[in-house]
Amino acid sequence: MQTHLPSKKYPIAIQPGTFLAYSELKSFVAGEAHDMLKGFIDWFDSHITREEPSAILKSLIGFMTFAGLLGTIFGNHAIRAGAFAVVITFVLSVMLLLIADRRRLKRAYDLQRARLARYCDYVIENTPAPQISIESWQQAVYVRPNGDVREVLNLKAVALGEKVHFVRLTAGSRWDQPDRYRRDVKVTARSISADGTPGPHWYVTTSWQSAHKMVSIPHLRRAIGRGEEVSFEMVRDWPAKCLPMMRQKEAEDFTLCTTSRLPVQSAEYRVVLPRGFDAVHELIGSTQPDVHLSAETKYDQENRRVFIWRSDSIPTLTTVGIRIELK
């Protein structure tokens, strides 16, 4: 079958035995382009919601390619430039609308998260007896030269109440951090099986009681009954938490405070300094009655200075730990 090229003078065959004039072909293509663009818009709205920025950038490049394709089909530089201008204006408008919508959704999410944290606080504060006991608290704090901190907690807990759905944990920095640091704090939690295998992640609610105190509430995937044990890992990535210690060489306290609603039976807490840094230390709470507190220092396999303190049977409403100051 012979192929005819489009022109304003000659018709073109699009199916055997069917011919369209060039003006009719332009109308046909324009209608198809409208449908394609509408589908593109619907796809882009859902795509930008779930994809990373790099994928979104690729989508914008796809839009520009689509505009160039329209100009090429019509074979006119003015139409091509107009198509680019229309697509760019449309994309910018859609982006602004989507950004505004995402901000609205984030505000709603933050509000719901704050309400959930407040309800959990209410449940705990209005329950006379503790609902859970921490049998083993193991925490490792990895300090970076710029003051950023990564904390890894491995906890084994026993339910004291009839049904336990969540655990409430507090943590804080020693200085009032600006919002730009606090909003970048990331907290994750996941279950740990008896053989140490990590399980699925839990949902974690975080809120701030002040500029230096954060409350994290990991929600168990399945409620545990009285006497049941659960082991879980919590990881906190905390920007600039130890900034005063690393930049101004101020003393930093690495402590654990027990409460009447969260008793802790035993704890091991280690602080790992960056390679090349050394410090002096002193124990906190060792003079308290019924406190059995010990400490040791060593170097790990990466030649980093490590400070470790341990305590068994920590009394209620007692703060124990270690104070470290760089040399």
The total tally of domains equals 2
- Gyration radius over CA: 31 Å
Mean pLDDT: 80
Indicate the CATH class of the largest domain: Mainly Beta
Poorly predicted runs are: 1-14
How much of the polypeptide forms β-strand, as a percent range? 35-45%
- The secondary-structure element order is EEHHHEEEEHEEEEEHEEEEEE
CATH architecture of the largest domain: Sandwich
Question: In what order do the strands lie side by side in the largest sheet?
Answer: 8-7-11-4-3-13-16-15
- Percentage of residues in helical conformation: 25-40%
Largest sheet: 8 strands, mixed
The CATH topology annotation of the largest domain reads as Immunoglobulin-like
Note the main attributes of this structure:
single chain, 327 residues, alpha+beta, Immunoglobulin-like, eight-stranded mixed beta sheet, 17 strands, 33% helix, globular, disordered N terminus
What this model shows, in words?
The chain is α+β, with helices and mostly antiparallel strands. The protein has two domains: 13-103; 127-326, Immunoglobulin-like (Sandwich), CATH 2.60.40.3140. It has helices spanning 22-50, 53-74, 77-125, 179-182, 243-247, and strands at residues 12-15, 18-20, 132-143, 149-159, 163-166, 169-172, 186-192, 198-201, 203-208, 213-225, 229-238, 252-257, 266-272, 279-284, 292-299, 305-312, 319-326. The chain has an eight-stranded mixed sheet with strand order 8-7-11-4-3-13-16-15, with no helix packed on it. Strands 5, 6, 9 and 10 form a four-stranded antiparallel sheet that branches. A three-stranded antiparallel sheet has the order 12-17-14.
